[in-house]
Amino acid sequence: MHTPHRIENGRKFRIASLSPTPPKNAPSKPDGIRATETLLPRLYALQEKLFADGRKGLLIVLQAMDTGGKDGTVQHVFSGVNPMGCRVTSFKAPTPEELRHPFLWRATNALPPRGSIGIFNRSHYEDVLVVRVHDLVPKPVWSRRYSQINEWERMLTEDGYVVLKFFLHIGRDEQKERLQARLDDPAKRWKFEPADLAERKHWDDYMKAYQDVIRKCSTPWAPWVVVPSNRKWYRNLVVASAIVDALQKLDLKLPEPDFDPSAIRIE
Ligand code: AMP
Ligand code: MG
Fold first, then answer.
1. How many helices and strands in the chain, by DSSP H and E?
2. Which ligand is nearest to the CA of 92?
3. Of 155, 190, 205, 266, which residue is least crowded by CB atoms under 10 Å?
4. What are phi and psi for residue 6, nearest 5 degrees?
5. Domain ranges of the chain
6. If DSSP codes are grouped into helix, strand and coil, which group holds residue 132?
7. How buried is residue 238: exposed, middle or buried, by Cβ count under 10 Å (0-12/13-18/19+)?
8. What's the CA gap between 146 and 102, in Å, rounded?
9. Are 199 and 66 within 8 A, CB to CB?
């Protein structure tokens, strides 16, 4: 299987050329939904094998603009996964204690133990996204972080981790509709934050910051998958297939017993 939209070398990546709608060769919506439904049980089985094998960890990074679908992706793609082997960490504005540490400290603390899956809902990339857009640290500081992130991710992959990063890309019009839906629907209103409107004003700055993230931090060891995410069914399909693909390549093995099962008699 091959993962569409996977970028290992982003040097020439242009965000303006990236459509947030499914490409022409995408399956139809019913076929796409069916394909995702067949992937989820495979994901479940692979997660169990990851756990039993115990030598590898999987780190999944989800980044998107507000309403981009990070929560929805966690909910749909991981619906069938055993919570025992899976942990979601949401990255908010850093606490005073986090600010007293190197920016990768909280990401390191949130790493999944080997044998399990860690999902970052936002991540260390906020330190070159929101931090850059709002000048929260001086430029010389944030501009060094791209290579620091690449080295940190390389260290992880050399130490038994698989790192998969997803940018859920929605269009500005789609965000408008989703924000409006949050306002209009009483069941969704709790998710609406007036601060999201202030962030929306910086859309172009964020797109530039995302473009640089993908240009500078798409590596063979920790690729970005840029997911056209205006359609949720297509987003779920791309994310689920990328994860199944990555787990399948790991050659996971169930451990051999250190006893002879045929010699054991249970009275
Ligand atoms: P939400 O994902 O809606 O819960 O919002 C979390 C908020 O925390 C977003 O506005 C992020 O931009 C913000 N945030 C996350 N990481 C950082 C960071 N390193 N520095 C500043 N703000 C951050
Ligand atoms: Mg929010």
1. 10, 6
2. 1
3. 266
4. -85, 130
5. 3-250
6. helix
7. buried
8. 14
9. yes
Q: Ligand 2 centroid to 66 CA: how many Å?
A: 6
Report which ligand 1 atom has the smallest distance to the Cα of 127.
19
Q: What is the DSSP letter of 61?
A: E
Mean pLDDT confidence for 79-99 = 95
Ligand 1 atom 17: residue of nearest CA:
93
The highest-level CATH class for domain 3-250 is alpha beta
Alpha helix stretches (DSSP H) within 85-171: 96-99, 105-109, 130-133, 139-158
What distance in Å separates the CA atoms of residue 141 and residue 236, rounded to the nearest whole number? 35
DSSP 202-246: THHHHHHHHHHHHHHH--SSS-EEEEE-SSHHHHHHHHHHHHHHH
> Please, which pLDDT band fits residue 210 given cuts at 50, 70 and 90?
very high
Taking alpha carbons only, the member of 250, 245, 249, 247 closest to residue 5 is: 245
- Report if pTM > 0.90: yes
CA dihedral 57, 61, 79, 84 (to 10 degrees): 30
Residue 143's region, left for phi above 0, alpha for psi from -120 to 50, else beta, is: alpha
